[in-house]
Task: structure prediction
Amino acid sequence: MNTLYLECAMGAAGDMLMGALYELLDDKASFLETMNHLIPGVEVRAERGVTAGICGTHMRVLVHGEEEGREHTHEHDQGHVHEHAHEHEHIHEHVHGPENPFGDQSVPVHIHVHGSESGQPRWPVVEHEHVHDHAHGHAHHHHAAPGQIAALIDSLPLPEEVRARARRVYDAIAAAEAKAHGVPMEEVHFHEVGALDAVADVAGVCYAVYLLHPDRIAASPVHVGSGTVRCAHGVMPVPAPATAALLQGVPVYGGAVQGELCTPTGAALLRELAESFGPMPPMALHAAGIGVGTKQFEQANCVRALWGESADQPRGGEANGEICELVCNIDDMTAEALAFAAERLLECGALDVYTQPGTMKKGRPGHVLTVLCAPEREAEFARFLFLHTSTNGLRARRCAKYYLAPGAETAETPWGPVRVKTAEGFGVKHVKPEYEDAARLARERQLPLETIYKSITYPD
Result:
């Protein structure tokens, strides 16, 4: 199976991950063309970078010609800019302009809490005139809110699979930042330039993974750095609280390198993408991509993306994986509330969520809710179940897992190509058309979906 392994020996940040994946792409020009037409005023540049004598790619994101404002931020050891949450009082000056991708800016005066460059704003953007004790490089700047970032992601001309993954990344970051700083998510606002910089990073990484279409993604344990980092709140320990929250259940380590190596954006992307964390699996290596940070260390400051073919598809009766099953009985939630809980659990990264009708105590009708997740996330999803449902207890069991290795091919129809999902192993191969591709052709050609399905010529 095609395997992507992310080596995070110097942590991870969105720009470094995007640079490493960019080097693996066959059509780099097309990727940059797409990225530079996603958000008005946002430009993505692939620049040559060198770290400890190793050449790679540094992805530079410019918003209206400038990088994220250094006056409002501190710089991570890998050169990525991160804006930690901090409180300011503002005098608001409402400015309506077509250059703002977040739209309407008319909101009342209030106090904001500013989050990281990777936060997920949910309320209107306001242009602020600051009254601060410390100097800023300019008097006005926009702030975005999570709902507007979500709306912006939804509007990007990218496949729905990419947008959905980017939204999950932002949900995770927003929740971690709010928890870390002890504020509700609705009180976390973010500097517009930093928010757009992070949207480009997250969208770029998710889009590159979509184009590569690996069968399996794994990552190394994550080097988080050591010591402390200074931000607007003062001196914080490494890993920063939001990053630590995002990396719960992930193997991490410190070391001699002083500073913050893994950003919240990098942590959230790794958590979303990687199915497992550990040593590189045995595979025939085909290519290596290197995403370079800007700060220099004695060791190479980069993320490596290693691409290869692994031969760990079982052919006999041996299980090829493990899965955790969490089960609870519920008889006091409405159908709407239960459906919402299932949706939220999937958004949090559950592998599957389903309900079965059952008869509970005292003859009451109810449902048995089952959540499937990766074994290393068992405790995390137990908490999610308590948070999103009314259950006071649940059952957890580890199960051996048999599965066919996923893959992808391209098939032909009289009206154009469609992608095909494959699943192979144990001497069996399943093939199924990608619904979205077939549905697109059916709409374009005004044909029944079944006609498209029947016309597909599958590859040998």
Residues 69-99, 103-141 have pLDDT under 50 and may be disordered. The two ends are 17 Å apart (CA to CA). The first strand starts at residue 2 and ends at 7.
